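Me: I keep going back and forth on a fold encoding question. No explanation is needed for now; the record alone will do.

Assistant:
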Amino acid sequence: MDELPIIQKTYDLIQWYVPVLNRLPRDHKMMLGERIAKFIEVGWALPTLFSLA
């Protein structure tokens, strides 16, 4: 695990935010999920658009 610290840090982040998310009301979780999905969608689309230009 020493050679891949990003994996350990990602795991630690997930361990931290899952209990935080579980305390949120359902509508807040849905809004957060939609925003994350949109961010990922835009994040994947932009490099593709620039590579086509």
In short: The chain has a mean pLDDT of 80. The chain has one domain: 5-52.
